[in-house]
Hints:
Elements: H1 20-26, H2 31-42, H3 49-67, H4 73-81
Amino acid sequence: MSALDTQAGGDHYKGCSIQPIQYIHANDLDFFQGNIVKYATRHKSKGGAQDLQKVIHYAQLALELQYGVKPADELGDMVQAGKGERAS
């Protein structure tokens, strides 16, 4: 049995053709990229809008810490407030 055959804390990756951890490992992604992949993959089956807010947050962290680019105030405020346009 492989560790990939089990999942702690839910089954939100079971329907994936490839689990996020396999993709992250195969592509040697860093912490920020890995979390973006993880949260983008699971948002429909687990965390919803909050997971997409986490995607934005990790992208902002990567921009700031890896490239020295501060996030736009408007986007940062939107993420903090949990507001924004809802997709239909």
